[in-house]
Design goal:
The complex is a heterodimer of chains A (123) and B (379). Chain A is built from 4 helices and 9 strands, in the order βββαβββββααβα. With 123 residues, chain A is an alpha+beta fold. In chain A, strand 6 and strand 7 form a beta hairpin. Chain B is of the alpha+beta class. Chain B has 2 domains: 250 residues, Gyrase A, domain 2 (2-Layer Sandwich), CATH 3.30.1360.120; 73 residues, Aminomethyltransferase beta-barrel domains (Elongation Factor Tu (Ef-tu), domain 3), CATH 2.40.30.110. Helices cover 20% and strands 34% of the residues of chain B. Chain B is globular and about 60 Å long. The chains are: A alpha+beta (123), B alpha+beta (379). Chains A and B meet through helix 1, strand 4, strand 6 and strand 7 of A and loops of B. Chain A: The glycine cleavage system catalyzes the degradation of glycine. The H protein shuttles the methylamine group of glycine from the P protein to the T protein.
């Protein structure tokens, strides 16, 4: 089950490995994405660390770590096809996999319904 | 994720006569020049490509339209030759000219289009500079020149299909018009001013018409299968590829037209005679060369250098990026930089500092794409 941040990242936990990406709302707001700068595998992230940059035609935006952990894998497909983020932000357009330090920390993030309510407050 | 800088502000925003149509079309609206304007409809790349390949329709009603009339023959042209460094006296009836309003320091108050229409002139100025232009005109007022600020809509149709799409809606024969000419005619059943001009590098037209007639004109054009509505996002990528300056980025109160690489707006007579506001600096820059020059920059990779990025050669600052992004038709990052003239030669490699890291950019010829506007003698 996915969890969400107020900065529009999503996390899906499988054991202690979290897949992280940006939400469909985020890709929609960014518009055409032309490049995603991903971190090196092995980098250790603290919550809130800027770990990736999304370049759209319009602007460059930082992406923040929703949880603490170590980067174990990056989505190499984004190198050739950054538009995957526009097409499937919450699926094939994932950014990184993270070996999380504290799996329970995910409980502090929003569930889908709470995130949907949050989106209504910012529109 | 950090929010892209398009969040709404608390300020009261104005709306163009086409606001409801943008909203109904599902456009993302953002504050721009004091107006709530469409940033994009289908998406920036799709809109950009549609303009290059067929026709893009733009609501540019936020731009300021001004009419100048004179009580003494020649007064308006003389006044405009004091305010701009261009040849206005020699502008033919129906001729339109791109130029700048200069300030005392040789910087730019605004860039604009001046059109002579019989006994009067029409000016189109940037929306964000309406108030600054008005203050500048009032500070330099001439009793023989009356300045009227018009409330009219302005729509632009740009791209290779523009002429064929627009022609049936205009009484005048627009196919016979050259680029940078204008006519007063009937369009969409009302009195309009139709100019063959634009700011995309494509052939195209701008139609100025009464506000209450704008909706029907927009509907007629957007209902044509060859036409896509285009927002501010693609307007920016189109003008960037075409090598055209954006006021507030590539032009400012501090940047001179010579530095900005639009010295061509100053013809030989004016370079010799001067007689315009800010002529001391501008004439000196023509004689001795400017302190910095606008150049085109391309990058081999995919990381664009955006406005504000520092430019370095051998670790020392040479200038700054004034506009930058990804050119959808060029297919890669492009930018304008204001650099030391020693580093302004085509092929010069420069490091742009992006998020603390150097990105290699190369000085390239402007425009990035060949212009496809319809010049005299072309068919």
């Amino acid at each position: 089950m996915k969890r969400f941040t107020k900065d529009h990242e999503w996390v899906e936990l499988d054991g202690d490995i979290a897949t992280v990406g940006i939400t469909d709302h985020a890709q929609e707001a960014l518009g055409d994405i032309t490049f995603v700068e991903l971190p090196d595998v092995g980098r250790t992230l603290a919550p809130g660390d800027a770990f990736a940059v999304v370049e759209s035609v319009k602007a460059a935006s930082d992406v923040y770590a929703p949880l603490a952990g170590e980067v174990t894998e990056i989505n190499g497909a984004l190198d050739d096809k950054p538009e995957l983020v526009n097409e499937a932000a919450e699926g094939a357009g994932w950014f990184i996999k993270l070996k999380v330090a504290d799996a329970a920390a995910v409980e502090a993030l929003m569930e889908q319904a709470a995130y949907d309510d949050f989106l209504k407050t910012i529109e | 994720m950090s929010d892209p800088a398009d969040c709404a502000t608390g300020a009261e925003l104005r709306r163009t006569p086409l606001y409801e149509r943008h909203k109904a079309a599902g456009a993302r609206l953002v504050p721009f020049a004091g107006y709530e304007m469409p940033l994009q409809y289908a998406g920036i790349i799709a809109e950009h490509t549609a303009t290059r390949e067929s026709a893009g329709l733009f609501d540019v009603s936020h731009m300021g339209q001004i009419r100048l009339t004179e009580t003494r023959p020649g007064a308006a042209a003389a006044w405009l030759e004091r305010l701009t460094p261009s040849d206005i006296a020699g502008l033919a009836d129906g001729g339109a000219r791109y130029t700048v309003l200069t300030n005392a320091a040789g910087g730019v108050v605004d860039d604009l289009i001046i059109t002579r229409l019989g006994d009067h002139f029409r000016l189109v100025v940037n929306g964000a500079r309406r108030a600054a232009v008005r203050a500048h005109f009032e500070a330099n007022a001439d009793p023989d020149v009356a300045v009227d600020y018009l409330d009219r809509a302005l729509i632009a149709l740009q791209g290779p299909a523009a002429e064929a799409v627009l022609a049936p809606h205009v009484a005048a024969d627009i196919a016979a018009m050259d680029f940078m000419t204008a006519v007063l005619t009937e369009a969409f059943g009302v009195d309009a001013m139709v100019s063959r001009c634009g700011y995309t590098g494509e052939d195209g037209f701008e139609v100025s018409l009464p506000e209450d007639a704008a909706g029907a004109a927009w509907d007629a054009l957007v209902g044509d299968g060859r036409v896509s509505p285009v927002g501010l996002g693609a307007r920016d990528t189109l003008r960037l590829e075409a090598g055209l300056c954006l006021y507030g980025q590539d032009l400012s109160e501090e940047i001179s037209p010579v530095e900005a690489g639009i010295g061509w707006v100053v013809p030989k007579r004016r370079r010799t005679e001067g007689g315009f506001i800010g002529d001391a600096r501008i004439m000196q820059e023509f004689a001795e060369g400017p302190a910095r020059k606008r150049v085109g920059l391309t990058a081999a990779g995919r990381v664009p250098a955006r406005a504000g990025a520092e430019l370095q050669v051998d670790g020392a600052t040479t200038g700054i990026v004034t506009s930058g992004g990804v050119g959808p038709t060029v297919g890669g990052p492009i930018a304008f930089g204001l650099v030391d003239p020693a580093h302004a030669t085509i092929g010069q490699e420069i490091a742009a500092v992006v998020r603390g890291k150097p990105v290699v950019v190369t000085v390239a010829k402007l425009p990035f794409l060949p212009s496809r506007t319809k010049r005299k003698g072309s068919s």
